[in-house]
Amino acid sequence: MSTPSSPSLPVGRNTLLLAGTLAAQSGMMQMVAAVSTLTFVLLTDIKGLLGVAPALVLGSAALAAFPAGKAMDRFGRMPVIRFGFICCGAGALLTGLGAHYESAAPAIVGFILIGIGNGQVLLTRGAASDMYPPERRARGVGLVLFGSVFGAILGPFVFTPLFGKDTVHASALATPWFAAAGFMVVGLLLSFAVRVDPKKIAELHAAIAAQATADRAGDGRAAAPPAVAAPLKEILRRPGVLPALLAAMASFGVMVSVMNLTGYVVVHHGHSKGDLFPIISAHIVGMFGLVLVVGDIIDRVGKATAMVSGLVVTAIASLGLIWIHSIPGTAVLLFLLGIGWVFSFVSATTQLADLTAPNERGRLLGFSDLLSGATGATLAIAGGLAFTHSGTAALSLLAAVVAVLPVPLIVLRRLPASLPQVA
What we know:
Growth Hormone, Chain: A; globular; mainly alpha; 423 residues
């Protein structure tokens, strides 16, 4: 019996298009990381709660991620991703209007919509994992994530000239927020060009793997992929899922909270708001600049080693903010923060993808994003309070401790490569 094959599937084309959508998303999220905190403080004059803006974005992203993942398993990956771009664009427009009219209410609603949309668009990495077999999955995820580098490069050229050198006023932030909405239009258009839906490609890979297993067994009959997804609680009990979830939570939570709060910290240290974008760009280059080789490195050293190494680097970068306040030095630390994130988060993502069937993958990655976003939102609030009352040292120590918390569990538990029935 011949095995299924996929020579005509547009995997390369889809990979390029998905990378383009993440480039657009990356460009827009630089605005969120750099000035969402500043926008909130200028509109509300509440400096003690400077972590509220990123917490609104991260919290709403977390709440949106799990239902978005379930919707992906039911309707396909791309309809959910497209709706995410629509939400992000609407949110950026509302935030810009709030800044223009110096009204906090539209901006707060805008932050929430940006978060809801971002929670859906971030699941693009699940679409990337769908299109590649397990032995190439980490590299496939890396190829799609590499698109974010172009957003990191483009962002400063678009946003920095839109900021003046005078005293900061909320109305001066309106135009950059409107430009961010334009990035979302580009991402939406690119998402409509992605065909075939990656979920269908994943189902074909599952059929190929099942047929190969049957052929090796000598009976020539492939086991059909499971028609009904396992309950989430059953998936969570699979060996290797819990350590990967904890690694994803810690790496993502620390990364996004430190990234979002750094913008306000840098301005607090007397630097210009225009200096924020080179720092955020360095961070995003750290996050995605090496993704073309990260997958190969993870495959070589193992997912457990990659998770632990990434979390340790994340902790070191967070601690460095205690002593380094210059723009170049902060850029280097944020670059290292990105490096630590990409190793720990990509290895955790591929581990979770390896342990799920195509009709289970979206819900598990969505649940992972729910926990990760909630961790980031909590750390943004806690870190903002820590910085307000005790300075940079308290913020940095909090982030470093959270980053290394999962390390003992990852070291003590051996991670399985995959489950044969869901490979």
